[in-house]
Amino acid sequence: MKKVAFGVTQLQIQRFVNVYFVETGTAGGWVLVDTGLPGSEKDIIAAADEIFYPGTHPEAIILTHGHMDHAGSAQALAEHWKVPILAHPLELPFLTAKAVYPPADPTVENGGSLAFVARFFPPQSFQLSDYVQALPTADTEVPFLPDWRWLHVPGHAPGQVALFREQDRTLLGADAFATSNHESVPSLLLQLPKISVAGAPFNYNWQQVSESVQQLAALRPEAIGCGHGPVITGAEAATGLQELADNFPMPSKGRYVQDPARTDENGVAYLPTAAPDPLRTKLTIAAVSFGALVGVALLIKKQKAHKQNDYPKKHPDEPRNPRTGKSPE
Hints:
Elements: E1 2-5, E2 8-13, E3 17-23, E4 30-33, H1 41-51, E5 61-62, H2 68-71, H3 74-81, E6 85-87, H4 92-95, H5 112-118, E7 132-134, E8 141-142, E9 145-152, E10 161-165, E11 170-172, H6 185-190, H7 206-217, E12 223-225, E13 232-233, H8 235-246, E14 262-264, E15 267-270, H9 278-308
Parallel strand pairs: 4-5, 5-6, 6-7, 11-12
Antiparallel strand pairs: 1-2, 2-3, 3-4, 8-9, 9-10, 10-11, 12-13, 14-15
Helix pairs in contact: 7-8
């Protein structure tokens, strides 16, 4: 666990994704921001008991967005603590199993190792209807956190939100950007600090991603915690984020670069045609070839076994010639 700022603690889940315990300002009160990967609930409950007191529970769970690595343990925790889950209205279709997110784009330029594994990610959607509620949009104050406001930062997810506390300029940036090179597995595992683009294969609207980074850079944060990467504090926080905004690495190719997906209150309204994926074709051919080879090997084995069983066998009880001891022919 790592302190981000006063009353804000980051917990890293499997050195890959972060969740946040944010104190409300009232005695013993707190809110959980994001829930990590599926199966993370035990680690999160144990951390909460350590930070606060055994048996504690939050006022609510706030999801910055509904991707699997942020909402994966939401249902288990909501059931355990009996608390509501809050998310932006544009995330609700994906959190109530009415829609799935735009498919990942493994062909995006500079997608790195994450782009490779994105080919194998299943469509993302959750059924949290019994617990999830829409984040109130009449104003931007975060429920249960009066000192915080939320900002709509789409591009990575339609209803993604970041949280900001003005008094000490603390920013929880979700996946609007990352504080480590998200496309490099070694960088993530080593937690090397670097403000960079987050989740490139899952960014369905690159223009919105760029605009969201610019919006957050204008806040001049002094402490940053994101969905992925270590805590960054001090002058490096504001300067690093501003540098990303000023020199945003817009990809030159990818499914959603020139023709973004469009979403609305019902989910995905439009998807551009998938870009050709030579590697997927090669992997498919390799898989088919391997399957064919296995099939041929099994067929040959079966034929050999059949030939061995073709010879007539003498039954053990078959009568034998009393003089020779041989079976009659």
